[in-house]
Amino acid sequence: MLRLSLIVATYNRSASLIRALESVAEQNAPLSEWECIVVNNNSTDDTRERFEEFAAAHPDHNFRMVTEMRQGLSYARNRGIGESEAEYIAIIDDDERISPDFITSYISLFDTTPDAVAAGGPIVAEYPSGRPRWMSHFTERPVANTMYFGDKVCEFPAGRIPGGGNMAMRRSAVRRYGVFDTSLGYVGESLVGGEESDLFERLRIAEAKYYYVPQAVMYHIIPTEKLTAEYLSRLSFNVGVSQLRRAKYYRRVGRVRIQEVVKWLVTLVLVAWYFVTLQWSKAKYLLLMRWNITRGLWSK
């Protein structure tokens, strides 16, 4: 019996997609209990050919690909949800790998926790070229979205939500709360995100519960090109833009900007600490991140 549909949206990253699918193929859940839907979002590389080769090499697995012509991560994920057939839905990205008991952990959570509407698991960053010296806990969050809340199943801590590359939900949640807002989310090379935050904002307002599942581990692979000052600047600016869009929708722009001023005070304290402890590169990149988030929040 099909229990869970796993959705992977992809755009022009055929090599990393295959690496992700290799971890999916190693799941310890019975093959009859899950399917994997790859949504090709108008890739212009060899994504389709590489996928077809991979699927042919795993004939016993339920892998299939659909194409979403409308460009954007939210469109692609929504297409995957629409194509899926199982009672439970999980979403990962094409630049990661997942633990062997990823699928069984989510099935178990939803089977044993009736009030769980959605869920997420740990996110561990992997740096093939090495973790840069300038990276701190604070600058790592927008780049890798790492999270770990212990080894016990629990409700997500206040103020935190599942990461977009490691989330799961009941199909009934989609029917009740809707899918991803297509005005948010990456489009091609654009880095304006926020679609996951918007979805979980709807769940929070409805007082729906979402749980942390420690066994559903995702390893986020961070390539060298995402470890530059230019990329962090672009990413941070678009974090601010997406925060502004959501703030406008929920009519709380003033509050969000006041919170940003408070974050600047905390940032300056941290920068002073980094200077005192001779961690100058961490101070520099933290200021770079905060400045560009602020720019995005005050953009039009």
How many domains make up the coordinates? 2
Number of helical runs? 10
β-strand number: 11
**Envelope shape:** globular
Distance between the termini: 50 Å
Briefly characterize the structure.
The protein contains 10 helices and 11 strands.
Secondary structure: elements and pairs:
Blueprint: E1 4-10, H1 14-25, E2 34-40, H2 47-57, E3 63-67, H3 73-83, E4 88-93, E5 96-98, H4 102-112, E6 116-120, E7 123-126, H5 137-144, E8 154-155, E9 166-170, H6 171-177, H7 195-205, E10 209-212, E11 218-221, H8 229-249, H9 253-276, H10 280-297
Parallel strand pairs: 1-2, 1-4, 2-3, 6-10, 7-11
Antiparallel strand pairs: 4-9, 5-11, 6-9, 8-10
Helix pairs in contact: 1-2, 8-10, 9-10
Write a structural description.
The chain is α/β, with parallel strands linked by helices and 300 residues long. The protein folds into two domains: 4-227, Spore Coat Polysaccharide Biosynthesis Protein SpsA, Chain A, CATH 3.90.550; 230-297, no CATH class. The chain has helices at 14-25, 47-57, 73-83, 102-112, 137-144, 171-177, 195-205, 229-249, 253-276, 280-297, and strands spanning 4-10, 34-40, 63-67, 88-93, 96-98, 116-120, 123-126, 154-155, 166-170, 209-212, 218-221. An eight-stranded mixed β-sheet has the order 3-2-1-4-9-6-10-8, sandwiched between helices. Strands 5-11-7 form a three-stranded mixed β-sheet. The longest helix has 24 residues, at 253-276. 39% of the residues are buried.
Keywords summarizing the entry:
three-stranded mixed beta sheet; 10 helices; 300 residues; single chain; eight-stranded mixed beta sheet; Spore Coat Polysaccharide Biosynthesis Protein SpsA, Chain A; 45% helix; globular; alpha/beta
